[in-house]
Amino acid sequence: MYFETDTKSFIIWDGTNWRAYVSDGLTGWSGSNTYSMNFDGTDDYLIGSSVTASAQQGTISAWIKTSASGSSQTILNTSDATVDNKWLNLRVDGGTGHLRFIAADAGTNSMTTGSTDINTGSWVHVAVTCNSSAYSLYVNGSAETLTNSNNDGKWFGDFSLTNISIGRQIRATVSALPFNGNIDEVAVWDSVLSAAQITNIYKGESNGGSGGTNSTPGNLLSFSPKAWWRMGDGVEANSGNIVYDMSSFSNDLTIVNATSGTNTAGAVYQSDTP
Questions:
Q1: ∠ CA 28-233-199, rounded to 5°
Q2: Within 10 Å of residue 121's Cβ, how many Cβ atoms?
Q3: I need a surface site. Which of 43, 50, 114, 123 has the fewest CB within 10 A?
């Protein structure tokens, strides 16, 4: 991928041809949110290299929509690709329908679970932050009351992590916990966003914004993410098997195991957004 500073266009090689997409001058933000990624709950997911692997604090943010019940569903997972027992997983918990974050280290799990039902079939904004000592969970911009089990704040830098997946937990020999529904606007930071910043993201406000009431995705660039996947609204433009990182760090993801849609492999881009 190239960015032309004179024309403000992204130039992408799709495997056959070069394609140009006109930018508004801000990497990543087109002014609208039209698409999300639909996962079939069976075998499709997004996969890429680890993001901020050395960070010992950070934030993950996403919009999700699911009504599947009875089993846990992975929103985002990062793991060591060579062993099965080192991973971090943000999920919808199958037993409660609540947001859960787990860090597994050689059989010892650090974990916290929220208190709000997010398995409703409606769009929900979720986030987890880690200050290297403990996790905090957020649903629709508000901090969750937590049920903790060894909530000790282990994060990316406490492990040797080499890959990241969205929509399914992918480890060395394990592929499990598929997501059934839609995921949109996933972002990762190597810093701890404040409660006010999480609220602004939920409301579509910029960093330090006035706190609007739109409750829709907005431009995340002012929050300086290390990765931001727009699930069809990025340079991928609702086509192909790459979901481009719309931050400035080029952490692109490959879509795996499609059965339909305009992309050539993987989950389906869908006109269904918060």
A1: 70
A2: 10
A3: 43
Residue 236's alpha-carbon distances to 11, 33, 54, 232, in angstroms, are 11, 13, 28, 6
Rounded Cα distance, 146 and 3, in Å: 43
Question: For residue 83, what are its two tokens?
Answer: 């062993």
Radius of gyration of the chain (CA): 17
Q: Residue 200 in 3-state DSSP?
A: helix
Supply the pLDDT for residue 214. 84
| Domains assigned to the chain | 27-270 (2.60.120.200)
- In the block, residue with structure tokens 């846990």: 72
Cβ atoms within 10 Å, residue 239: 15
pLDDT in the model for residue 196:
95
Q: pLDDT grade, residue 268 (50/70/90)?
A: confident
Contact (Cβ atoms closer than 8 angstroms) between residue 130 and residue 110: no
* CA atoms of 60 and 228, how far apart (whole Å): 10
Q: What is the mean pLDDT of residues 190-207?
A: 96
Predicted pLDDT at 101? 98
Contact 236, 14 (CB under 8 A): no
Of 178, 181, 158, nearest to 167 by C-alpha is 178
Which runs of consecutive H residues, i.e. helices, occur in 186-227? 195-202
Structure confidence by residue, pLDDT tens digits, 220-249: 999 999 999 999 999 999 988 899 999 999
How many CA atoms does the CB half-sphere of 146 hold within 13 Å? 18
